[in-house]
Amino acid sequence: GEKLPKTQSEIALVGHAFEARIYAEDAAKGFLPATGTLHHLKFPDAAPQGATMRIETGVRAGDAISPYYDPMIAKLVVHATDRQAALEALGAVLSRTEVAGSTVNTAFLAALAADPDFAAGDVDTSLIARHQTALTEVAPPTGETIAAAAVAASGAGVSPSPNDPWSSLAGYAHFHSVARRTRLKFGEDEIVAKVSVRHDGRFQVTLDKPYDDTNSRDFRSTPRLARWPGHITVFEGAVGYTFTVPDPLARADEAAAGSGSLRAPMPGLVKLVRVGKGDAVIKGQPLLILEAMKMEHTIAAPHDGVIAEIATEGAQVTDGTVLVRFFEEQAISIAVAS
Q1: Cα dihedral sign for 226, 60, 139, 191?
Q2: What is the dihedral of CA 119, 120, 121, 127, to 10 degrees?
Q3: Closest CA to 289 of 308, 302, 272, 277
Q4: Which of 15, 107, 218, 308 suits a disulfide with 239, CB 3.0-4.6 Å?
Q5: Which listed CATH number (1.20.200.10, 2.40.50.100, 3.40.1700.10, 2.60.40.1180) goes with 250-337?
Q6: Please, which residues have CB within 8 angstroms of residue 221's CB and are 6 or more apart in sequence?
Q7: Per-residue model confidence (pLDDT) at position 105
């Protein structure tokens, strides 16, 4: 081959760099791989002053994260004068990275970058295990975050289109401000908000229980957010809070699925079924094995019960597919052991 442009002696270490790998995974659930469509994907335009960054990615907004390939979304590399400066730059860049449509690990990475032991270089293979709760727990959304989602869900915060004169009349009322009652879901929580659009363009949001412990909020603009089919994601730092906008027409389907059903936590292949219809099971008993992202996950019974239906061995399932139905009618939460 040809001669290299530099010799080893001419290569000098300058500054410090970090690489963060953004994955579609759920850190709070033992880093289970996630799937979905990247309805929104946005990286910062530049690193903070005094630092540089490089983003390596092979996906873009609209691409799907499937269960058949590695769920890495991007490598985010920052460089600065020293370790502390590079670490601060990494946290800043992660806090301005936006992903909606799949669960991602940006909040975990930002928490790790802010961890005192990691910052001090006191790192070993048990660091994450020692600090797992602090690194994976995400604070619940604030009233301001919920209010911003409510404004977006109501349609009041949609910017007027220059090609649509009617959109410029959003929120218009001849005598008084328009109030819209909006429903959202965050996890299992039902949220009801009243959104009023003022003549000066401000929004007033009042939240019902259990989020009514603060006063109504007045603001003119919403924070960083992404609207995607049936959902709104509001970004606060490195955390993306995703709210579901309920579809009244879908409630009948949800009721038909019924409580007492166990759903797939991710897309995958039902590799092995350990029980059958009519079998009595106890809490914690393995029911089936779901293969996803080259890993096997044991789906266990969350409580005692009797199997009414169970998925077929070899079936390919999507996220949320009903795997098991119990004769006992009660709300079920999935227990997964890798």
Answers
A1: positive
A2: -70
A3: 272
A4: 107
A5: 2.40.50.100
A6: 157
A7: 98
CATH number attached to the domain at 14-136: 3.30.470.20
CB 81 within 8 A of CB 47: no
Question: What dotted CATH number matches 143-246?
Answer: 3.30.700
CA dist., res. 320 & res. 35, Å (int): 11
**What are the pLDDT digits (tens) for 265-300?**
878 899 999 999 999 999 999 999 998 877 888 999
Question: Which amino acid is residue 148, in one-letter code?
Answer: A
Strand partners, 335: 300
Going from N- to C-terminal start, the domains of the chain cover: 14-136, 143-246, 250-337
* Statement: residue 304 has pLDDT above 60: yes
User: What secondary structure letter does DSSP report for 166?
Assistant: G
Per-residue pLDDT tens digits for 35-91 = 899 999 999 999 999 999 999 999 999 999 988 888 999 999 999 999 999 999 999
